[in-house]
Write a structure and sequence with these properties.
mainly alpha, Methane Monooxygenase Hydroxylase, Chain G, domain 1, 81% helix
C-alpha cells in the first residue's frame, strides 16, 4: 500500500513540476506572479518559491515587490530551509525598514536561528547566534508582544547551553579527570548562578576536589583536602537551605578527619626523626 501511495505522490510532483516549468517559460510576469500566489495560498511552497525566484528581478521596485519578497522568505521557512529563510528575512527588514511587516521579519530572522539550534551534544554556534539576535530583538522592541516570546526562547536556549556544559563537566568526572571536573563545574556554576541545579553543581565541585585529593600524592593531600573544606564552607554560605546540605556536611566531616589523621601521622614521623 505504501508503495502505491509513494508512486502517487511522485506522479503528483512530476505533474506539478511540469506545470511550473510551463509557467516559467512564459514571458507574462503578471500571470507568473498570480500563479505563484495561488501556489502559496495552497501551501505549495516549493512551486511558489521557484516562480517567485524567477519574477523577483523583474518586479524589483514595483508595488508587488515587498509582498512577494515577504512570501518568498516564508516559502523557504515553511519548507524548513531555515538557513536561506534567515537570510531572506534579514534582507526583507533591511530593504523595507518602514514596512508594517519589518518587525515580524526581524523576529523571524532570530526565530530561524532558534529553529537551527541543535541538540545539546552538538556544536552550539547557531544557539549562541539565536540568543544574540533574540536578545537584540527584545531590547529594540521591548513593547512588542513578540519580545516576551523572544525572552522565553532565550531561557530555553540557555538551558540547552547549560546542559551541554554540565555534560562536559560530568564527562571529566566520569573519566577520572577530577581537577578538570572541579574547574568545569566551577565554571558552570559561574555561568549559571541562578540555575535550579546550582547547589548540585557546587556539590559536584566538592566531590571532584575530594576525589582529586584522594588520588593525589601523600605530600599533596593535606593541601588539597583543605580546598575541599573551603568549598564546603562556601556551599553552606551560599545554599543554607539546600536539600544537599547533609551530603556536604558528610564530606566536611570526612575531610576534617582525613586532614587530622594526615597531620597526626606527619607529627609522629617528625618525632621519630
Amino acid at each position: 500500500m505504501r508503495f502505491f501511495v509513494s508512486l502517487f505522490l511522485v506522479a503528483v510532483l512530476l505533474v506539478s513540476c511540469s506545470d511550473v516549468n510551463k509557467i516559467l517559460k512564459s514571458n507574462d510576469y503578471n500571470m507568473k506572479l498570480a500563479k505563484a500566489n495561488e501556489y502559496y495560498d495552497a501551501k505549495k511552497y516549493m512551486q511558489a518559491q521557484l516562480i517567485y525566484e524567477d519574477v523577483m528581478p523583474v518586479i524589483k521596485g514595483s508595488a508587488d515587490y515587498e509582498n512577494t519578497y515577504y512570501k518568498w522568505a516564508y516559502c523557504h521557512y515553511n519548507q524548513k530551509d531555515y538557513l536561506n529563510a534567515e537570510n531572506l528575512f534579514k534582507g526583507f527588514f533591511e530593504n523595507f525598514p518602514n514596512s508594517t511587516k519589518a518587525e515580524e521579519a526581524e523576529f523571524m530572522r532570530a526565530y530561524c536561528y532558534y529553529k537551527q539550534s541543535p541538540k545539546p551534544e552538538l556544536d552550539q554556534t547557531p544557539t549562541l547566534k539565536a540568543i544574540t539576535h533574540l536578545q537584540t530583538f527584545a531590547n529594540t522592541h521591548s513593547t512588542s508582544a513578540r519580545a516576551k516570546e523572544a525572552l522565553t526562547m532565550i531561557d530555553e536556549l540557555r538551558m540547552k547551553l547549560e546542559i551541554k556544559e554540565f555534560k562536559s563537566a560530568d564527562l571529566y568526572y566520569q573519566l577520572g579527570f577530577y581537577k578538570a571536573a572541579a574547574t568545569a563545574f566551577t565554571e558552570l556554576l559561574y555561568n549559571y548562578p541562578d540555575s535550579e541545579k546550582a547547589d548540585k553543581y557546587k556539590l559536584m565541585v566538592i566531590r571532584s576536589w575530594y576525589k582529586y585529593a584522594e588520588n593525589s600524592y601523600e605530600y599533596k593531600q593535606a593541601e588539597r583536602y583543605e580546598t575541599v573544606l573551603n568549598e564546603c564552607a562556601d556551599f553552606i554560605d551560599r545554599f543554607p537551605d539546600s536539600k544537599l546540605s547533609d551530603d556536604v556536611t558528610k564530606y566536611k566531616s570526612e575531610t576534617q578527619n582525613i586532614i587530622k589523621k594526615i597531620k597526626d601521622e606527619q607529627a609522629q614521623a617528625s618525632i621519630k626523626r
